[in-house]
Specification:
The protein is mainly alpha-helical. It has two domains: 25-66, no CATH class; 70-125. It has helices at 31-43, 48-58, 70-94, 101-125. Helix 1 crosses helix 2 and helix 3 runs antiparallel to helix 4 (101-125). The radius of gyration is 26 Å and the shape is flat.
Length: 126
């Protein structure tokens, strides 16, 4: 007899967690207490569930940064826009087309923006 190999396909998606959190624990509190808990959770960059679970299990919260500061995210977005514009210009130039006056002016503006961003990054790092 021939042995048949069954091939299981990876269906993709998020991988299964080792420990699934499927239990719900309800807590009664006043509206004032709820706002206080939500404010403390927000100040530590945790969800209310994470905050309450950590406080109940360890009695303390290690403050951690989940996201980059707003200035860094804004700077990253600006760099992405400039990079997209540079790619469009490079594609046009590599295909043999010449740039018109409007496109040359756009390049000059973007170049100035890039220089200003470089100065901003240098001042932030110092």
């Amino acid at each position: 007899m021939e042995e048949q190999k069954t091939i299981t396909r990876n269906k993709g998606g998020r991988p299964k967690k080792a420990v699934k959190k499927d239990q719900i624990l309800a807590v009664k509190c006043s509206s004032f207490e709820r706002r206080a808990i939500e404010a403390r959770a927000k100040s530590t960059n945790l969800t209310v569930s994470e905050y309450l679970r950590e406080m109940a299990l360890t009695g303390k919260i290690d403050i951690r940064q989940k996201a980059f500061p707003k200035q860094v995210l804004a700077l990253s977005g600006t760099f992405n826009h400039i990079a997209a514009n540079l790619n469009q210009i490079a594609k046009k130039r590599n295909s043999g087309e010449e740039l018109n006056a409007l496109e040359r002016a756009e390049i000059k503006v973007r170049s100035g923006e890039l220089k200003a961003l470089a100065v901003e990054v240098k001042s932030y790092l110092q």
